[in-house]
Amino acid sequence: MVDRNGRDRDGAAPTGTTHSPPASFAEQANVADPGIYEAFEADWPACWTRAADLLSWDEPYDTVLEDDEAPFYRWFPDGRLNAAYNCLDRHLESGRKNHAAIRWEGKQGERRTYTYRDLYVEVNEFAAALRDLGVEEDDVVTIYLPMIPELPIAMLACARIGAPHSVVFAGLSADALATRMDAADSEFLVTCDGYYRRGDAFNQKSKADNARLALEQDVRTVVVDRLGDDLPHVLGDDEYDYHELREAFAGETVDPVVRSATDMLFLMYTSGTTGEPKGVVHSTGGYLAHVAWTSHAVLDVKPEDTYWCAADIGWITGHSYIVYGPLAMGTTTVMYEGTPDYPDRDRLWEIVDRNAVDVFYTAPTAIRAFMKWGSEYPAEHDLSSLRLLGSVGEPISPRPWNWYRDHVGGGDCPVVDTWWQTETGAVTISTLPGVDEMKPGSAGPPLPGIDANVVDEAGDPVEPGRTGYLTIDRPWPGMAQTLYDNDDRFVTEYWQRFSDPASDDWRYFSGDTARIDEDGYITVLGRVDDVINVSGHRLGTMEVESAITDVDGVAEAAVVGRTIPAGNTEIYAYVSTESGREPGEAIRAAIRENVAAAIGPIASPTELVFTPELPKTRSGKIMRRLLEDVANGESLGDTSALRNPEIVGEIQAAVGDEG
Ligand code: WT7
After folding, report:
1. CA of 248 to the centre of ligand 1 (A)
2. Which whole-number Å values give the CA distances from 530 to 514, 527, 533, 543, in the listed order?
3. What is the band of 275 on the pLDDT scale with cuts at 50, 70, 90?
């Protein structure tokens, strides 16, 4: 098979050595029975009650799966529950109120521990405050906070009163926030004055203010004072101080609102193939059951563990595996506000050591950075508390996988490489650490009950070793229910490609290419669509391109991903200017500034190459494949399909000058 970039990916490096889970791990694993795969298969979809049984239901469900309106599947449709109750109240009732729920590690070395009781109290007070501000069931509350405890508290307060939250990553821009609030018609915002970036106070509220100015609706805003005197701020109309609200509602409790399992728990915007971000809608029952189950079966979380997922709650990983999964399972979840190299490159290992972390979950981009910095940093600390390591967000190749296992995991920790997406809600492909052999470089088999396949253009399974498209051919509990306010786009983005609605045959298309081996292990290769994965963050090429072409003087832009030697992907932009406009430093700076303003600094191109024209097909389509090959220094394929083949040499020369 040939991928979007015209490259034949078949016959890429084989996976290599396999590792068995150590006996000591298997003995204590939450799931250790290899029969689980067959057991799920034999009893599908009822097998998923194993996941649902990890939750407490106000009204038990009779039906496991309703598929009348596929692909709008409804899991546990007649069951009723509350997510905050499942993450808080029930742990108090089972006598664990003094158990640590969140251990927060601040950027400036501050530390805060919330017991389940503390968290319960603060969530209730803030839920009461939100109600008083007028938040009703089903109102979307936007949360624009960095990694401070008030972020999960606000999420759980929303869940408690049945108000879906829409968390917008704090590093995104005012424009990005406004687009998301507008799309969700959100009239409530929780934000903060600012946060520390490498020791400096950074103003978050001014971004929130600018977003509000751009919106038509009135927005009631709660502001958390994170910086105190380091960044004084004034509250305007419709703005409320978080701590004052808490004082006003001190000691108040709010009964958890009993929700249908299919009611929306939250919305999460993610990049797609077109400019508009997609509001992925997650359910209360199916989502929570799936994240709880995978926290249990894949991350092997135990209530007595100290568990750390070093991601940001502003993305799905943090929703599922910092907040909902671990808290539903009643464990201690570590929440880290800072970066891995501040104040020094051993920062994470110091936190693991001091907290005796049992399970650690991070992204390949971080692992590659650790590897580059050197093994002396983890070696400075006692990491023997670690029992299991996880990876998520991008493919991890065998070298960093092995480095992670050897230098962080002491050579004998199992590593789970977990494949999933914002849309899948929870892990769908991974080894079960107490059951399966690990093959570095391959995520593993689909989890029990998950019907993931690698298929060709016609939807037929490919031979082992060949490359194809990654599909999921049966529904699963954590799946997105729809795209907010856009059922049509939900169908066209994910289902159209490989489904046959006439025969009611629905298959989900992930947008990824993959290979499968003889043992059914899946190696995910990357995206087929115009989405670039930068450090585990999905960015749509169209979004970035439109932020570039917005700049005065820019005629056209094309954005591609470039893989740098460390394995990370960078954004590479090709830009042509309007006639009479000289490309130069001024326009370059304006582009960087505008991309940062429209999306956020993460989307800012690392490399910007000016070219008089972009290479185009005769029908006028920009040849991204070619531009990607140029950026990656690869030999160029056939350029005869181009309308302007002469431009290629010029672009190569320009790239040469840049490099
Ligand atoms: C895309 C989803 C799931 C939380 C983080 C990102 C890539 C994710 C892996 C993995 C290879 C992976 C895929 C996927 N991806 N995990 N273990 N191996 N690729 O969530 O922003 O929705 O991105 O991330 O390309 O489609 P997301």
Report:
1. 42
2. 16, 8, 10, 10
3. low
